[in-house]
């Protein structure tokens, strides 16, 4: 389900231009407070039924981490009307597919069916919402599943604890300081009642959005939505706690030992603003300048010219409350980490003091426009984006306005944002290396 690649899924291939088609949608609220978004697309006979809940790892407590991700698994166990182990069988036998994923900010569930099975998709998601079976058998079963996932994707994966190593140093107060998958001892210690209470608190109508996208008839869909989701009791949205971090004003140094790696890694990380800000988009663009492709500045310098790094990458890990900007490199041979750190600083300094060329800006804008169009290239992507813009950005119209923001970014903004957030005294320098004998 949730995955973190070494390169944090860096941006795709540069394009010279794209055409963004307007995404039309309708939104309304059910009497119980559930927000509904409908997007019709008759180009293919498929339909997506999805529900995004405004609950993630940041809604947990320090001694009970991993709950949000645990529910991503637990809520496939079954319901009062769907037998244990039957969920995936029902989906596959009706020509569909389904999945779920969790972040620090939200949890997302979806089914993709042939369009003649919209009613089935709506019924299944309403069952998950209203009638889940949360019992000890399911908790024990999924506890083992999550433990195995953590072993495979984190504990036994090279650089698998990189995000944890950074987060626990970048945040001292905010729940972003722990990882989405959490700590297994917290899940082991939790009682069945704690899991049931977590569901009751966060899986409520005013803390979710239902999106239906694809080939369907709107009147019929609205009737089924009212039939299946209307009876869910209205629940109050949980109060979202606000956490603030003091600015980082002095360079932080840290180390992490990983028995699964042989080549050390240097990570430079900076705390950045919410993904909802214009500045977060600009930071994404700075990543493209520094490390996207073989002609990017850090790659060209450290990998091609100086041959001091096997790999180098940057990424702005944007989240609802804060973001974290990563730069990392794997040194060649005995290359000192100080050489990599110096190169990071010098290349950022150039962006802070010299405007990028008009040509560079044009290429960046073309690439981001292409990425935007690709993210809406099918109904699965549209459904996810509609839910995200509504629930996390509080502006579903961004699905059509995002390009306007991207196109309006200037060279001066790129320079100024780099000056504001990417300074040496604001960074964490982490040496993530092999376990010492």
Automatic annotation (TrEMBL):
Residues 1-20 form the signal peptide. InterPro entries: Metalloenz_LuxS/M16 (IPR011249), Pept_M16_N (IPR011765), Peptidase_M16 (IPR050626), Peptidase_M16_C (IPR007863). Residues 36-180 form the Peptidase M16 N-terminal domain. It comes from the Bacteria. Pfam families: Peptidase_M16, Peptidase_M16_C. Keywords: Hydrolase, Metalloprotease, Protease, Signal, Zinc. Residues 190-367 form the Peptidase M16 C-terminal domain. Belongs to the peptidase M16 family. PANTHER family: NARDILYSIN, NON-CATALYTIC MEMBER OF PEPTIDASE SUBFAMILY M16B-RELATED. This is Zn-dependent peptidase. It comes from Moheibacter stercoris.
């Amino acid at each position: 389900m949730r995955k973190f690649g070494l390169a944090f899924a860096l941006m795709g291939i540069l394009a010279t231009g794209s055409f963004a088609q307007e995404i039309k949608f309708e939104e309304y609220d059910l009497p119980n407070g559930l927000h509904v978004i409908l997007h019709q697309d008759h180009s293919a006979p498929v339909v997506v039924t999805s529900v995004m809940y405004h609950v993630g790892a940041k809604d947990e407590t320090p001694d009970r981490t991993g709950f949000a991700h645990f529910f991503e698994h637990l809520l496939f166990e079954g319901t009062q009307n769907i037998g244990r182990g039957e969920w995936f069988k029902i989906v596959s036998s009706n020509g569909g597919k389904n999945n779920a994923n969790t972040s620090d900010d939200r949890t997302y569930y979806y089914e993709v069916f042939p369009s003649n099975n919209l009613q089935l998709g709506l019924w299944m998601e309403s069952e998950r919402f209203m009638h889940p079976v949360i019992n000890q058998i399911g908790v024990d079963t999924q506890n083992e599943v999550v433990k195995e996932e953590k072993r495979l994707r984190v504990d036994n994966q090279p650089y698998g604890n990189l995000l944890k190593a950074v987060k626990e140093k970048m945040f001292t107060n905010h729940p972003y300081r722990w990882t989405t998958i959490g700590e297994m001892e917290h899940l082991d210690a939790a009682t069945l009642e704690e899991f049931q209470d977590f569901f009751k608190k966060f899986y409520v109508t005013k803390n979710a959005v239902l999106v239906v996208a694809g080939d369907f008839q709107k009147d019929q869909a609205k009737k089924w939505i009212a039939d299946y989701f209307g009876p869910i009791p209205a629940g109050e949205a949980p109060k979202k706690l606000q956490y603030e971090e003091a600015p980082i004003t002095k360079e932080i140094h840290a180390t992490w030992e990983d028995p699964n790696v042989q080549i050390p890694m240097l990570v430079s990380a900076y705390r950045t603003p919410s993904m909802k800000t214009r500045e977060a988009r600009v930071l994404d663009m700075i990543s493209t300048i520094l490390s996207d492709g073989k002609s990017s500045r850090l790659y060209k310098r450290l990998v091609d010219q100086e041959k001091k790094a096997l790999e180098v990458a940057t990424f702005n890990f944007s989240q609802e409350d804060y973001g974290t900007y990563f730069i990392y490199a794997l040194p060649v041979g005995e290359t000192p980490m100080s050489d990599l750190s110096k190169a990071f600083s010098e290349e950022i300094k150039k962006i802070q003091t010299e405007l990028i060329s008009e040509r560079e800006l044009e290429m960046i804008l073309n690439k981001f426009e292409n990425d935007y169009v690709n993210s809406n290239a099918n109904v699965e992507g549209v459904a996810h984006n509609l839910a995200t813009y509504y629930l996390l950005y509080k502006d579903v119209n961004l699905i059509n306005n995002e390009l306007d923001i991207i196109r309006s970014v200037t060279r001066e903004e790129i320079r100024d944002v780099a000056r504001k957030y990417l300074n040496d005294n604001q960074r964490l320098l982490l040496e993530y290396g092999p376990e010492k004998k």
